[in-house]
Amino acid sequence: MDFSRDVGGVPSLLKGWPRLSFLRGALVLTLAGLCSKIIGALYRVPLSYLLGAEGIGLYQMAYPFYSLAFVLAAAGIPIAVAKLSAEEIAHGRHHVARLIFRAALALLALTGFCFSLLLYLLAPVLATKILGDPRALYPLRAIAPAVFLIAIQVALRGYFQGRQKMVPIGGSQVVEQLVRVVTMLGLAYALRPRGLEYAAAGATFGTVTGALAGNLLLGALYLRSPQTVDRHPTGAKEMGAILADIVRLALPITLGAFIMPVMDTVDAVIVPMRLQVIGFSVRQATALYGQLSGMAVSLILFPTVITAAFAFSLIPAISEAVALEREDLVSRLVGEALGVTVLVALPATVGLYLLPAEICQLLFQTPEAGAPLIFLAFGCFFLCLQQTTTGILQGLGRASVPVQSIFLGACCNAVLNYYLTAIPALNIKGAALGTGIGFTVAALFNLRALGSLTGIRFRLRYLLFRPLLATLGMAAAVKAAYPWFWTRTGGSSLAVLPAILLGGVVYLLLALLTGAVPWRYLAFFIPFRGFRRRD
After folding, report:
1. 231-246 pLDDT, tens per residue?
2. How far apart are the C-alpha atoms of 518 and 165, rounded to whole Å?
3. Do residues 393 and 450 make contact, with C-beta atoms less than 8 angstroms apart?
4. d(CA 175, CA 217)
5. What is the DSSP string of 146-197?
6. What per-residue confidence (pLDDT) applies to 113?
């Protein structure tokens, strides 16, 4: 297939072609993801009061190992299911798509149970020998059952993703987050008198109850979905071929996903250790690591809700376009996704850089976390690009390329964190800088590979120029408005909210006036035909 096209400004790409279904799916997932993130941001405030920076550090220490176990158990399989299902559905073979889901569900149930049990049994060794803090045993064991439950959940999500039905997936995300937050805050409060480690364990157990709630919702929706009659008896040979296809596609994706929790695990070991080398105590090092991983990193992940939704929707959409040999549609999907990614990532990056300490004071009552956030903010832009390009490459069947990019970025991150964290003048800021550079290296590798593999030419002048103008206007408005709001609120940290809101309004207006955002985008929110004629 020949994908040779120019990818430039979004408006030029959109003229004359219909609204793509993947944008609807991405919008649904974005709204659900934003709801989940808002809930997540809100719970961080009371959780920070309950646990403090040290307790947040214990809470965060369990997640890299949980993520590692989940990746080994399940990471690549749902993406493989979505891609294979989309290809079969494009050719009308719905019975094969259903067989793909059943095979994946059985495989995920087995691997999820095994790795859940393994994490529970290895928790004492991980806490004492690797993390160096025996108190981490309780959060590790509390979160272990979630591996099995999430493995089942991603199989169900892969089923709906392959059919490009994103509403059930978005609904499950919101329900899961609500139950998770209620559980973690309730247990953290109830267990706080018994000790910080028990409170942190109660907080991590929220992942288990949240996953269970998400499974119940998705399972009910699956049972209510139209069940096609299978007139094609399935033999062992056909089922074996399906499993082989799933494993073939899932292995490189799993390997790539495996690198990220390994990167987090390495950080959880290296960063506190190197901080102790330059004179910080164990408790101080844990608190600083909590500021980086539990606060600063969580903020740069907030904008990726949108780009992750695009990547999730892109995989089946591009797989379907490739299966139907629609080269023009593939090129348009790529341009659409990259254009929206830039529109989201640029203002988010600049916004985090402008008011880092103020945002951390508002959300976490820990303005010190703004120090690593300043050095990490630029990584937000490249992390968004990395997510979108990974979804594109996986949809094209080039899943091995993101593996290489993530591995290269993780190596850069580990080396830089080791050396930069031990520089006294940088300390935790050095770890933030290394993490940001790791995201940058991975994103640039993906972009270069995408261009060489597909022949698509990226017209960066048009892709970046107009969004950058709007972003600079937004930055000027925020910088001018924040002191005024700060004075009028009597020095309250709440002054950040109207400043950010004003900046968002200014950005949207400038983006519309400069053409960075096409007027027809408003038709996704306001069903008025006039918007479609403005381009």
Report:
1. 555 555 566 777 777 7
2. 25
3. yes
4. 8
5. HHHHHHHHHHHHHHHHHTT--HHHHHHHHHHHHHHHHHHHHHHHHHGGG-HH
6. 92
